[in-house]
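ok new one. same drill as before - structure tokens go in, u give me an amino acid for every spot. 585 of them this time. try not to just spam alanines like last time pls lmao
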């Protein structure tokens, strides 16, 4: 079958999110053909290029989110009215919130759930109305940046029943919100929604929610292509966390949160299946409007082979230091290394020989670098350099290191150097470093955040976040009981091999692909030699590689519901054909 893989800021670019698991998925399903539809976030990302793509990638089409592609179309009076009506309905759904029941709102059911559903339908209808305008007339990018768009937003914020916070929006706030919505809706203006583009796919697989799923929504709306959405990090949750750190006006935060909430609801409603990466993400999706019957958890897959030598204790692999704790990850405030250092101070009082190795580099922002400097200063203050004697050189029991140096040449070596791995995060999605430690057969002590409990499943100790004393007590308990450490480490590796490998991830998605296609209606009319509709003309076997009976598609005198040129099976070329936005397929 042919899969349209939809990404934003990730695969196939060298840098970005979700690139690794997308590449593993595509390489692991060599029996299928993949077309990549990628949205780039920055010009730098595009300049860095793509990773080496496997032969099953038939073509790659890209479009930038970091700049608008203006087609130069200027709307006439009718098109401007059509834009104002559709955009006004979309913003009314964003600004209004659930309608109140009662005499002042005639025709609105009293059940709040009915009101929420009505607003969701209103948003969806307006969204597809804007997409149809872009397809029929063009010029949507310019219209979304026009003064008319700002005035429509202002009317929606001042309308009766609008959110109280939205009514406080000033002109700078309106400009900020309008610019953000224009950027988020740029995929509506792409030329991907034709029979020879996304229409040729058997299904669309969005690697994330938000902008990545928008092309899938339109392919479903225009072409009837089923949509599968995978979220290993819930897009709406990520927006909430990012908004909390921004110095934006309350009206801006409220309006953008409402917009992304409406968009997430429509993505979940339109998708045939939604595959969260863990139960924590699943709960978020349910609260954001996802139907529980559509949710199916598929854990991310990790390459177990790279940790096999350490996990199995192969000859030549490094032996764990029984007095060393290890922390591995990106250094940023969410990891709460401050609590870890205070906890280690209590551990040192109980076990003076213990050392702590912090392995990782700061995340790619200035705040993370400043946080790392603060952690180093705190470690120097809490643990002055110690020396074994009056003539020995002092040494700090806390070390900050990076992978790739002579002491830690690889990621597996980072976990191998200690007997106990610690996770001290206050915010966490799917704890990748925890799974890596489990694959290395290491006992772990973690904070109860995100999907930690789901991943650990009883093979490690879990304590409340922001509680240095509880973290210290758990670490001391395992440091003093090496047999228990060994049992927990062995159980952790067995659990990771069962649930969190690349193989189980690929097998799960292969089954989901077949299930979706087998339940999807045929979008092409198949006829026999005399031009009559052929019953069962597209059997399930047509989606399996092999020599099957060829069918002839009707090209003339077809009913309106069967319009659209059929797409015949093709042999994927050896080299993907890159196609940029604005070019043909």
């Amino acid at each position: 079958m042919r899969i349209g893989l939809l990404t934003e800021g990730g695969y196939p670019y060298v840098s970005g999110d979700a690139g690794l698991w997308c590449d593993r998925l595509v390489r692991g399903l060599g029996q299928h053909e993949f077309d990549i539809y990628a949205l780039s976030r920055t010009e730098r990302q595009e300049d860095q290029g793509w990773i080496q793509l496997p032969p099953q990638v038939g073509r790659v089409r890209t479009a930038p989110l970091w700049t608008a592609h203006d087609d130069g179309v200027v709307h006439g009076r009718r098109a401007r009215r059509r834009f104002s009506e559709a955009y006004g309905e979309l913003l009314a759904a964003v600004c209004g919130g659930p309608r109140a029941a009662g005499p002042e709102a005639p025709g609105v059911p009293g059940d709040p759930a009915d009101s929420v559903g009505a607003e969701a339908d209103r948003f969806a209808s307006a969204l597809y109305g804007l997409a149809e305008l872009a397809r029929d007339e063009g010029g949507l990018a310019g219209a979304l940046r026009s003064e008319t768009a700002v005035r429509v937003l202002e009317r929606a914020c001042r309308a009766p029943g609008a959110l109280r916070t939205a009514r406080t929006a000033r002109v700078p706030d309106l400009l900020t919100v309008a610019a953000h919505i224009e950027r988020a809706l740029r995929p509506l203006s792409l030329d991907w929604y034709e029979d020879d583009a996304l229409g040729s796919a058997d299904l669309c697989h969005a690697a994330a929610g938000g902008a990545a799923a928008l092309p899938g929504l339109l392919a479903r709306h225009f072409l009837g292509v089923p949509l599968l959405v995978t979220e290993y990090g819930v897009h709406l949750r990520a927006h909430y966390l990012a908004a909390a750190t921004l110095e934006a006006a309350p009206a801006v935060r409220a309006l953008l949160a409402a917009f992304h909430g409406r968009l997430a609801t429509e993505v979940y409603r339109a998708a045939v299946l939604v595959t969260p990466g863990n139960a924590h993400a699943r709960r978020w999706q349910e609260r954001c409007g996802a139907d529980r019957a559509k949710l199916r958890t598929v854990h991310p897959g990790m390459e177990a082979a790279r940790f096999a030598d350490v996990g199995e204790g192969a000859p030549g692999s490094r032996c764990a230091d029984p007095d060393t704790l290890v922390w591995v990850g990106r250094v940023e405030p969410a990891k709460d290394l401050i609590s870890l250092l205070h906890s280690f101070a209590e551990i040192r009082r109980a076990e003076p020989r213990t050392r702590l190795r912090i392995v990782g580099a700061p995340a790619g922002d200035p705040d993370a670098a400043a946080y790392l400097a603060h952690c180093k200063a705190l470690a120097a203050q809490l643990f002055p350099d110690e020396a074994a004697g009056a003539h020995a050189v002092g040494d700090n029991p806390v070390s900050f290191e990076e992978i790739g140096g002579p002491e830690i040449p690889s990621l597996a070596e980072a976990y191998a150097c200690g007997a106990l791995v610690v996770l001290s995060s206050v915010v966490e999605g799917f704890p990748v470093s925890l799974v890596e430690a489990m694959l290395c057969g290491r006992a772990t002590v973690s904070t109860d955040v995100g999907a930690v409990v789901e991943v650990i499943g009883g093979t490690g100790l879990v304590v409340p976040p922001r509680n240095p004393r509880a973290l210290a007590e758990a670490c001391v308990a395992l440091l003093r009981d090496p047999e228990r450490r060994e049992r927990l480490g062995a159980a952790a590796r067995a659990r990771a091999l069962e649930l969190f490998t690349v193989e189980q991830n690929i097998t799960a998605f292969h089954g989901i692909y077949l299930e979706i296609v087998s339940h999807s209606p045929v979008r092409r009319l198949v006829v026999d030699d005399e031009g009559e509709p052929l019953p069962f003309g597209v059997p399930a076997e047509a989606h399996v590689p092999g020599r099957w009976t060829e069918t002839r598609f009707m090209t003339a005198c077809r009913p309106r519901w069967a319009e659209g040129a059929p797409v015949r099976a093709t042999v994927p070329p050896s080299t993907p054909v890159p196609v940029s936005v604005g070019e043909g397929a």
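Residues 204 and 216 are 6 Å apart (CA to CA). and btw The mean pLDDT is 85.
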